[in-house]
Amino acid sequence: MVYRRTHQVVKRLAARRSAILAAAREAAAEGGMAAVQIAPVAIRANVAAGTVYRYFPSKAELISELISEVSRDELAAIRRAADAAPGPSSALAAAVTTVAVHTLSQRRLAWGILAEPVDVDVSASRLASRREIAGEIAARIDAAVRAGHLPAQDTSLAATALLGALHEALVGPLAPDNLEDPVKMRDAVQTVTLLALRAVGVMDARARGLVVQQTLLPTTKALVGA
Protein backbone atom coordinates (compact mmCIF):
# COMPACT_ATOMS: atom_id res chain seq x y z
CA MET A 1 0.00 0.00 0.00
CA VAL A 2 1.31 3.44 -0.95
CA TYR A 3 1.55 5.73 2.06
CA ARG A 4 -0.28 9.03 1.72
CA ARG A 5 0.14 11.82 4.20
CA THR A 6 -3.07 12.82 5.89
CA HIS A 7 -4.22 16.41 5.91
CA GLN A 8 -3.28 16.72 9.59
CA VAL A 9 0.22 15.40 8.94
CA VAL A 10 0.72 17.85 6.09
CA LYS A 11 -0.48 20.70 8.31
CA ARG A 12 1.85 19.63 11.11
CA LEU A 13 4.84 19.44 8.79
CA ALA A 14 4.05 22.86 7.29
CA ALA A 15 3.64 24.34 10.77
CA ARG A 16 7.01 22.97 11.86
CA ARG A 17 8.69 24.37 8.76
CA SER A 18 7.08 27.75 9.41
CA ALA A 19 8.24 27.66 13.02
CA ILE A 20 11.83 27.03 11.93
CA LEU A 21 11.72 29.92 9.48
CA ALA A 22 10.12 32.19 12.09
CA ALA A 23 12.91 31.30 14.51
CA ALA A 24 15.52 32.05 11.85
CA ARG A 25 13.87 35.39 11.12
CA GLU A 26 13.85 36.33 14.80
CA ALA A 27 17.52 35.40 15.09
CA ALA A 28 18.44 37.48 12.04
CA ALA A 29 16.38 40.45 13.24
CA GLU A 30 18.17 40.40 16.60
CA GLY A 31 21.71 39.48 15.65
CA GLY A 32 22.03 39.63 11.88
CA MET A 33 22.67 36.68 9.58
CA ALA A 34 25.59 35.58 11.73
CA ALA A 35 23.02 34.59 14.35
CA VAL A 36 21.26 32.20 11.97
CA GLN A 37 22.90 28.95 13.03
CA ILE A 38 21.21 25.56 13.00
CA ALA A 39 21.46 24.72 16.72
CA PRO A 40 20.25 28.10 18.09
CA VAL A 41 17.45 28.22 15.51
CA ALA A 42 16.39 24.71 16.57
CA ILE A 43 16.20 25.82 20.19
CA ARG A 44 14.11 28.85 19.27
CA ALA A 45 11.77 26.68 17.21
CA ASN A 46 11.58 24.07 19.98
CA VAL A 47 12.75 21.25 17.72
CA ALA A 48 15.86 19.11 17.49
CA ALA A 49 18.74 20.25 15.30
CA GLY A 50 18.24 17.12 13.22
CA THR A 51 14.66 18.23 12.52
CA VAL A 52 15.95 21.51 11.10
CA TYR A 53 18.26 19.56 8.80
CA ARG A 54 15.34 17.47 7.55
CA TYR A 55 13.64 20.61 6.30
CA PHE A 56 16.78 22.53 5.35
CA PRO A 57 19.75 20.24 4.63
CA SER A 58 22.28 23.07 5.05
CA LYS A 59 22.61 26.51 6.58
CA ALA A 60 22.80 27.94 3.07
CA GLU A 61 19.38 26.50 2.26
CA LEU A 62 17.90 27.82 5.52
CA ILE A 63 19.22 31.34 4.95
CA SER A 64 18.26 31.29 1.27
CA GLU A 65 14.69 30.32 2.14
CA LEU A 66 14.62 33.00 4.85
CA ILE A 67 15.65 35.60 2.28
CA SER A 68 12.97 34.35 -0.10
CA GLU A 69 10.27 34.38 2.57
CA VAL A 70 11.06 37.90 3.80
CA SER A 71 11.15 39.13 0.22
CA ARG A 72 7.81 37.49 -0.60
CA ASP A 73 6.25 39.21 2.40
CA GLU A 74 7.66 42.57 1.33
CA LEU A 75 6.53 42.10 -2.26
CA ALA A 76 3.02 41.21 -1.11
CA ALA A 77 2.92 44.33 1.07
CA ILE A 78 4.11 46.50 -1.83
CA ARG A 79 1.39 45.11 -4.10
CA ARG A 80 -1.35 45.55 -1.50
CA ALA A 81 -0.37 49.17 -0.91
CA ALA A 82 -0.02 49.99 -4.59
CA ASP A 83 -3.23 48.21 -5.61
CA ALA A 84 -5.17 50.15 -2.97
CA ALA A 85 -3.97 53.50 -4.34
CA PRO A 86 -6.42 55.62 -6.37
CA GLY A 87 -4.18 56.06 -9.42
CA PRO A 88 -0.85 55.07 -11.01
CA SER A 89 1.16 57.93 -9.49
CA SER A 90 -0.27 57.21 -6.06
CA ALA A 91 0.46 53.52 -6.59
CA LEU A 92 4.11 54.30 -7.32
CA ALA A 93 4.32 56.50 -4.22
CA ALA A 94 2.74 53.73 -2.15
CA ALA A 95 5.19 51.15 -3.50
CA VAL A 96 8.21 53.32 -2.70
CA THR A 97 6.88 54.21 0.74
CA THR A 98 6.28 50.55 1.54
CA VAL A 99 9.85 49.61 0.60
CA ALA A 100 11.15 52.42 2.80
CA VAL A 101 8.95 51.50 5.75
CA HIS A 102 9.81 47.81 5.58
CA THR A 103 13.51 48.61 5.41
CA LEU A 104 13.42 51.00 8.36
CA SER A 105 11.14 48.95 10.57
CA GLN A 106 13.55 45.99 10.51
CA ARG A 107 16.93 47.45 9.62
CA ARG A 108 19.14 44.64 10.88
CA LEU A 109 17.07 42.03 9.08
CA ALA A 110 16.97 44.18 5.95
CA TRP A 111 20.76 44.50 5.95
CA GLY A 112 21.07 40.77 6.43
CA ILE A 113 18.79 40.10 3.49
CA LEU A 114 20.57 42.60 1.27
CA ALA A 115 24.29 42.51 1.84
CA GLU A 116 25.55 41.35 5.23
CA PRO A 117 28.55 39.04 4.71
CA VAL A 118 27.71 35.40 5.40
CA ASP A 119 29.87 32.30 5.31
CA VAL A 120 27.63 30.48 2.81
CA ASP A 121 26.61 31.38 -0.73
CA VAL A 122 23.15 32.97 -0.80
CA SER A 123 23.78 35.27 -3.77
CA ALA A 124 21.11 33.64 -5.94
CA SER A 125 18.38 34.27 -3.37
CA ARG A 126 19.53 37.83 -2.83
CA LEU A 127 19.54 38.54 -6.55
CA ALA A 128 16.09 37.01 -7.03
CA SER A 129 14.75 39.09 -4.15
CA ARG A 130 16.02 42.37 -5.57
CA ARG A 131 14.91 41.48 -9.08
CA GLU A 132 11.32 40.80 -8.01
CA ILE A 133 10.96 43.98 -5.99
CA ALA A 134 12.64 46.10 -8.67
CA GLY A 135 10.29 44.51 -11.20
CA GLU A 136 7.26 45.53 -9.15
CA ILE A 137 8.49 49.12 -8.91
CA ALA A 138 9.22 49.11 -12.65
CA ALA A 139 5.65 47.99 -13.33
CA ARG A 140 4.33 50.89 -11.27
CA ILE A 141 6.57 53.39 -13.08
CA ASP A 142 5.47 51.93 -16.42
CA ALA A 143 1.79 52.29 -15.49
CA ALA A 144 2.34 55.95 -14.62
CA VAL A 145 4.20 56.52 -17.90
CA ARG A 146 1.40 54.90 -19.92
CA ALA A 147 -1.15 57.06 -18.10
CA GLY A 148 0.77 60.16 -19.14
CA HIS A 149 1.75 61.03 -15.58
CA LEU A 150 5.49 60.53 -16.16
CA PRO A 151 7.85 61.13 -19.10
CA ALA A 152 8.95 58.13 -21.17
CA GLN A 153 11.98 56.42 -19.66
CA ASP A 154 13.77 53.12 -19.18
CA THR A 155 11.49 51.91 -16.40
CA SER A 156 13.64 48.90 -15.51
CA LEU A 157 16.75 51.03 -15.07
CA ALA A 158 14.82 53.68 -13.16
CA ALA A 159 13.36 51.10 -10.79
CA THR A 160 16.76 49.55 -10.15
CA ALA A 161 18.25 52.97 -9.43
CA LEU A 162 15.42 53.87 -7.06
CA LEU A 163 15.69 50.61 -5.15
CA GLY A 164 19.45 51.01 -4.82
CA ALA A 165 19.05 54.57 -3.58
CA LEU A 166 16.45 53.54 -0.99
CA HIS A 167 18.59 50.74 0.40
CA GLU A 168 21.79 52.78 0.44
CA ALA A 169 20.12 55.71 2.17
CA LEU A 170 18.20 53.72 4.77
CA VAL A 171 20.26 50.66 5.63
CA GLY A 172 23.63 50.90 3.88
CA PRO A 173 26.91 51.82 5.59
CA LEU A 174 26.22 55.54 5.09
CA ALA A 175 22.68 55.43 6.52
CA PRO A 176 22.01 57.56 9.63
CA ASP A 177 22.20 55.81 12.99
CA ASN A 178 19.22 57.44 14.66
CA LEU A 179 16.33 56.20 12.53
CA GLU A 180 14.73 54.12 15.30
CA ASP A 181 13.00 57.28 16.53
CA PRO A 182 9.44 57.27 15.07
CA VAL A 183 9.54 60.93 14.05
CA LYS A 184 12.92 60.58 12.34
CA MET A 185 11.71 57.39 10.70
CA ARG A 186 8.66 59.17 9.31
CA ASP A 187 10.79 62.06 8.05
CA ALA A 188 13.21 59.64 6.39
CA VAL A 189 10.37 57.79 4.64
CA GLN A 190 8.97 61.06 3.36
CA THR A 191 12.36 62.30 2.20
CA VAL A 192 13.28 59.20 0.20
CA THR A 193 9.79 58.89 -1.28
CA LEU A 194 9.91 62.52 -2.43
CA LEU A 195 13.38 61.96 -3.87
CA ALA A 196 12.20 58.88 -5.78
CA LEU A 197 9.14 60.60 -7.23
CA ARG A 198 11.16 63.61 -8.36
CA ALA A 199 13.76 61.31 -9.90
CA VAL A 200 11.27 59.65 -12.26
CA GLY A 201 9.73 62.96 -13.31
CA VAL A 202 6.91 63.85 -10.92
CA MET A 203 6.67 67.63 -10.62
CA ASP A 204 7.62 68.92 -7.17
CA ALA A 205 4.20 70.14 -6.04
CA ARG A 206 2.55 66.90 -7.15
CA ALA A 207 5.30 64.82 -5.59
CA ARG A 208 4.84 66.57 -2.25
CA GLY A 209 1.11 65.96 -2.40
CA LEU A 210 1.64 62.26 -3.06
CA VAL A 211 4.04 62.02 -0.12
CA VAL A 212 1.53 63.65 2.22
CA GLN A 213 -1.13 61.26 0.95
CA GLN A 214 1.06 58.30 1.93
CA THR A 215 1.50 59.52 5.51
CA LEU A 216 -2.26 59.29 5.95
CA LEU A 217 -2.46 55.58 5.10
CA PRO A 218 -3.20 53.41 8.17
CA THR A 219 -0.53 50.85 7.27
CA THR A 220 2.15 53.52 6.98
CA LYS A 221 1.07 55.15 10.24
CA ALA A 222 1.26 51.84 12.08
CA LEU A 223 4.67 50.91 10.72
CA VAL A 224 6.36 54.25 11.36
CA GLY A 225 4.62 54.87 14.65
CA ALA A 226 3.03 58.12 13.51
Please summarize what this structure is.
The chain has helices at 7-31, 38-45, 49-55, 59-83, 88-105, 107-114, 123-146, 155-170, 182-200, 204-215, 218-224. With 226 residues, it is mainly α.
Search tags:
elongated; mainly alpha
Topology record:
Blueprint: H1 7-31, H2 38-45, H3 49-55, H4 59-83, H5 88-105, H6 107-114, H7 123-146, H8 155-170, H9 182-200, H10 204-215, H11 218-224
Describe the model.
Helix content is 75%, strand content 0%. It is mainly alpha-helical. The radius of gyration is 19 Å and the shape is elongated. The model is unreliable at 221-226 (pLDDT under 50).
Percentage beta strand = under 5%
Order of helices and strands: HHHHHHHHHHH
Mean pLDDT across every amino acid position: 91
In this structure, how is the largest beta sheet organized? none
What value does the Rg take, in angstroms?
A: 19 Å
Distance between the termini: 60 Å
Task: List how many beta strands DSSP finds.
Answer: 0
Portion in helices: over 70%
